[in-house]
Specification:
The protein is an all-alpha fold and 350 residues long. It has a single domain, classed as ABC transporter involved in vitamin B12 uptake, BtuC (Orthogonal Bundle), CATH 1.10.3470. It has 16 helices and 2 strands. A two-stranded antiparallel sheet has the order 1-2. The chain is globular, with a radius of gyration of 20 Å. 42% of the residues are buried.
């Protein structure tokens, strides 16, 4: 059946992917890597927003799965001599999903504020394992040696892609398209998920948990499924990030990094499907700008966030949609539908 909203969203995604695909052909390698950062953070923010924006659950511990996505494969390389990127990535996603299935089972049965606290506690516990070296102890003296050398961090080589070892310049070029493919896959997966009956039921638990229970929605089970999917997407982003920067540190498992992802998601707009993507790209741009004005980074970011919250509580996505609707002289509801999740009510304020 013809759906204008989905067709419009498909056109926007296709245009964005086309622009991103020509980046390696148009700019120097530094900006190719910078674009890779933005794509990875977009994946992470999409995963985080499945809980924050669509389930109404704030997790301050989802960065734990981001870190597990990289650390798992890094351990396989360091102590098992695994050099396949595919095995590195799949092992990280599988380990994070397994951990999230256990942690999520406990967290989703609590009230919302306690959910946030529990996720934070689990993350701090995991970070302590890497900071204190306990995660390295099962590997004996070799593990202790690596811990003392890197203070809990690990360095990664350029893994083989489809069994092929690439030169550094070629690797940067090819890995951009690997990251872009992962981004496109996650975007399509999230779009279809949010337009499914599961996505609509998940938003029902966010808007009115009591009513959702009365109509037969298994709230705890749906939140648990969302928790695991969100963690797996975060782990995918973490694995890609580890290979992109070729270094993993305990700071990537800490709640401060999680807070940065939350800020990026809120900045873009939690109720807009494209919001986390927009927020991630803006955050990367602000970070790059901060390299030139290091003392003003938090000032600029704070001022922008406050300005967005006052001007457009829906985030930068809502601001952009309103500007585009005004430019074209169309009702905002007609344009906003392609930017929000399935079944979500578009912004209707004048």
């Amino acid at each position: 059946m013809y759906d204008p909203a989905r067709l419009r969203a498909g056109w926007w995604l296709g245009a964005a992917l086309l622009v991103l695909a020509v980046v390696p052909l148009a700019v120097n390698p530094y900006y190719v890597i910078l674009t890779g950062y933005a794509l990875v953070f977009s994946i992470a923010c999409l995963g985080l927003n499945l809980l924050l924006g669509h389930a109404g659950l704030l997790s301050l511990g989802h960065v734990a799965y981001f870190g597990l996505g990289a650390y798992t494969g890094a351990f396989l390389f360091t102590f098992g001599d695994v050099t396949s990127f595919e095995l590195y990535l799949v092992s990280g996603v599988a380990c994070a999903a397994l951990a999230a299935s256990v942690v999520g089972f406990l967290c989703v049965r609590t009230a919302r504020i306690f959910f946030t606290i529990l996720t934070l506690v689990f993350t701090q516990t995991l970070q302590a394992l890497f900071v204190g070296g306990m995660a390295f102890r099962p590997f004996g003296e070799v593990g202790t040696g690596f811990f003392l050398i890197g203070h809990g961090g690990l360095y990664l080589p350029r893994f083989t892609l489809a069994g092929v070892e690439l030169e550094p310049a070629r690797f940067t070029f090819v890995f951009h398209y690997v990251t872009l493919t992962a981004f496109a896959g996650c975007t399509i997966l999230m779009w279809r998920l949010l337009h499914s009956p599961f996505g609509m039921a998940l938003r029902a638990t966010r808007d009115n948990e009591t009513r959702a229970r009365f109509v037969g929605v298994p709230v705890a089970r749906y939140r648990w499924i969302a928790f695991v999917i969100s963690a797996a997407v975060m782990a995918l982003a973490g694995g890609l990030f580890g290979q992109l920067v070729r270094q993993i540190t305990p700071q990537q498992v800490g709640w401060l990094f999680n807070a940065e992802l939350v800020v990026a998601t809120v900045l873009g707009g939690t109720r807009a499907f494209a919001g986390p993507i927009i927020g991630a790209f803006v955050m990367v741009a602000l970070t790059e700008l901060a390299l030139r004005f290091p003392l003003s980074h938090h000032l600029v970011l704070g001022a922008l966030l406050i300005g967005v919250l006052f001007v457009s509580p829906g985030g930068l996505a809502e601001l952009g949609v309103r500007a585009w609707a005004r430019l074209r002289g169309q009702p905002i509801a007609d344009i906003a539908t392609g930017f929000v999740g399935g079944g979500e009510r578009p912004w209707t304020r004048p």
